[in-house]
Amino acid sequence: MTLVPFTDCCAMLGIDAKTLRNWLRQTNLEWAAHPKDARLKCLTQEQVQQLASLHSRPLPLPGSTPPALQETAPVLGLIGEHAQTSPESQAQLVQATPLLPPPMSEEADFRKKLSCLERSITSMQEQLAQLALGLLQERSLRYERRLSALEAHLQPKLDAPACVHELEAVVQAHQSEPPSTTARRLHPAELRARSRVIPLIEYGAAGTYVVICPQEGALELVPDSAEWFEWFATLSSFRFVGQQGRFTAYRDSKHGRPTRSWRAHRWIHQQDYKHSLGVTDQLTITRLEQVAAILQAHVDAL
The pTM is what? Predict the structure, then answer.
């Protein structure tokens, strides 16, 4: 029976020691003990060929395989038999006995180096993936910080637009002037600009709510009064700037026809946040402030 040492088996199959042990465990193959040294683990030539066939591993050519342990056994036996002979004959027998296994073939060495290279490439790919993930997370965090800083910088200007106060002052000055008999006709561009402006309800510095209509100017409406709800019934949209926040409200439509339901919208970080206001009879100051606070909470959570 021809025995092949453990290290030579790894070299012939082109695998490492751990892989060889796993293959033996899967195929229920057992080690064979060396007849002279029980510490050496060996496999038979048939077992090596069986493993190579199961895992499609080419074996080296017969000329490049290491000499089997069985070939050295007769020589070792001759050494024991001729132990009583002359010192010259013992020296010749020792020189003829191979003390070290021959070097592995070039093909096995190449397979071993290729296996090490594949493991190094796999480890490098994992490190690059972790590095790229860390860079993406850092960039996302940096962008979020910039957006938060920009939102904090623009928030006071958006919450208290100066154009509203200027528009209120212009309307009051226009109302205080005596009517002119020769009123100037509005340019078509001015008419289109006024048609795009929607009514505004704003909490003023005096602690009262100011209602401004683009066509009629400032309206003296008492919140939650009958005139208040009648005015809402004539609108399709309006803008609210209150104590708790702000939003733009639009009337819902069904099958292309407007309904009595309203919905508040606010655009925050390229996303439209919506909340129901209820029907026209529910548009009280308390309800408007409540919805404005709900939409403002989305800004504070960023």
Answer: 0.38
